[in-house]
């Protein structure tokens, strides 16, 4: 029996285990998929020794931290600087990034032309999102809690910045279940019907962030279909003889 799983922390309400269990049943594949909630990436070698795994998905907070543990990395994942899918073959860990194709397909079904974009967060998910946006000619401005060479802070978001960026994307976990009342603090009064707002969170279906933006007239979208698309891509990698 093949064995796959998800590493990250926390994982109590993860989508992946049920999704892959159903997928394996539907495709009549003799495989199992488990959650492995590790609090530190340094626990990964012990996990690999204890469990004979054929592949892993990677979620917050390890999409960047896992890279030094890999034997090979796909060129796209290397360019992005983040990995969310690992194929284990002949004891070698090969890293991929399926968030890229998941977000690209989801994004282009939501907005069909490049615009100025604010991306909230600078972690592993943000790197994949920024990669897709740049490759599709969107102008990207990163926003984080602390100012860096590449980002501004939430406190910098004034009327001019918000009104001049038609697409706003949240890549942070703020507002994820069970902390559904948490919300990124921005001046929502300057959001309007010209804005497209995307939240990578899928649970809840509509975060407070999306609720507030929708109330100001914005077009909104959550991350569910991105999640499904990237999971399908991970499945292809796991079950392919050649990848």
SSE layout and pairing:
Elements: E1 2-8, H1 16-26, E2 31-37, H2 44-50, E3 55-58, E4 72-73, H3 75-80, E5 85-89, E6 92-96, H4 99-108, E7 116-120, H5 124-135, E8 139-144, E9 151-153, H6 159-163, E10 167-170, E11 196-199, H7 208-215, E12 219-221, H8 224-239
Parallel strand pairs: 1-2, 1-3, 4-6, 7-8, 7-10, 8-9, 10-11, 11-12
Antiparallel strand pairs: 3-5, 5-6
Helix pairs in contact: 4-5, 4-8
Word description of this protein:
With 243 residues, the protein is an alpha/beta fold. The protein folds into 2 domains: 96 residues, Leucine Dehydrogenase, chain A, domain 1 (Rossmann fold, 3-Layer(aba) Sandwich); 124 residues, NAD(P)-binding Rossmann-like Domain (Rossmann fold, 3-Layer(aba) Sandwich), CATH 3.40.50.720. Helices cover 31% and strands 23% of the residues. The chain is built from 8 helices and 12 strands. The protein has a 6-stranded mixed beta sheet. A 6-stranded parallel beta sheet has the order 9-8-7-10-11-12, sandwiched between helices. Helix 4 crosses helix 5. The protein is elongated, with a radius of gyration of 18 Å.
Question: What's a quick, concise take on this entry?
Answer:
The protein has about 240 residues and is α/β, with parallel strands linked by helices.
Search tags:
6-stranded parallel beta sheet, elongated, Rossmann fold, 243 residues, alpha/beta, 2 domains, 6-stranded mixed beta sheet
Taking strands numbered 1, 2, ... along the chain, how are they ordered across the largest sheet?
A: 2-1-3-5-6-4
The largest β sheet comes out as:
6 strands, mixed
Strand content: 15-25%
CATH topology of the largest domain: Rossmann fold
**How many domains?**
2
Uncertain spans? none
Regarding quaternary structure, how should these chains be classified? single chain
Mean pLDDT, nearest integer? 95
* Count, helices: 8
Using DSSP, what is the number of strands? 12
Write the element-wise H/E pattern from the N-terminal end onward: EHEHEEHEEHEHEEHEEHEH
In CATH's first tier, which class of the largest domain applies?
Alpha Beta
Structural class by SSE content: alpha/beta
For the termini, the CA-CA separation is: 19 Å
